């Protein structure tokens, strides 16, 4: 017994030393991999990341990055991922892909490694007689089946048609399995001319892709030729692969009757907190109004105004009164009359020059991107350049997170791991 006690104490001491050594190794490991672990955690569940594209004119390629909207931290960079024109980067759920608008060839991107896997889908269903094809792609996730589908909406001229100036619309869909061999399936024309080329013209919620009316048309009609409101919304169900034949009446038309079509260019779509939201830039009242769709059934649809973001807080350049000339402009170099035989030169005043400079740098668009966990809203602002800001509705504070530059854009939301 006298020999046992020292042996036990020695064993306990060795065990404690080993335990402390293991804990020290764990602490070193956590210190080395902490930033990566936080970045990976940020992409799980509701902590989504923004898919950013930046085009570089010198190299004629596009860099793709995943960015944390809370801090502006670049979680993953994929420089030169898109090296040709006509390629579109898409994000849907936990999948990233790049698609070629010319031939529909699809490539999957592993966000963790940057590895690109080329797939070979079946031929596109676009008619061979189509010319001047303009495409828009949306990658969505169907939660009921767990599959990802790529929706291709396009407009085109038919060279066999007698009216070469009339654009026609159609669409096709592809199931993205990651194995290749899938075929594009024709899904027909949307129930109205839709905005499919601009990111903020569409949004995806619960496997349904919503589109605003086309902003380039003087007026929009439905499939029956009836004129519809400027804020009408068309819906495509990825699960059934069908367009809803009934348009959704927008919040402005619903509350105030038919609006002039000039309102359309002040509208956008987004998805916030799992709901479809119409964004209205009300420049007259200097607010950005957010209307959420609270009932999406076919029989009853209703909108509710959830936020009125102060435009002067979100966008730069709106906090000052518009500058105007203090007096009418006069011909001549110093306001005098020109000499005989010379053309009168009208020079702007200092106030007009200042107003012109401010107009160039005034930010015009504030596009909400996502609702953060604490209720703040990440917003992409566009003017001469672009930036991501986070607005807190509780305090009214709007903070700059990161600048995306003139050639940068936010093209999607990614919820996978990195």
Automatic annotation (TrEMBL):
Signal peptide extent: none
InterPro entries the record matches: Gal_Oxase/kelch_b-propeller, Kelch-typ_b-propeller
Gene3D superfamilies: Kelch-type beta propeller
Source domain of life: Eukaryota
Name of the protein described by the UniProt record: F-box associated domain-containing protein
Source species: Leersia perrieri
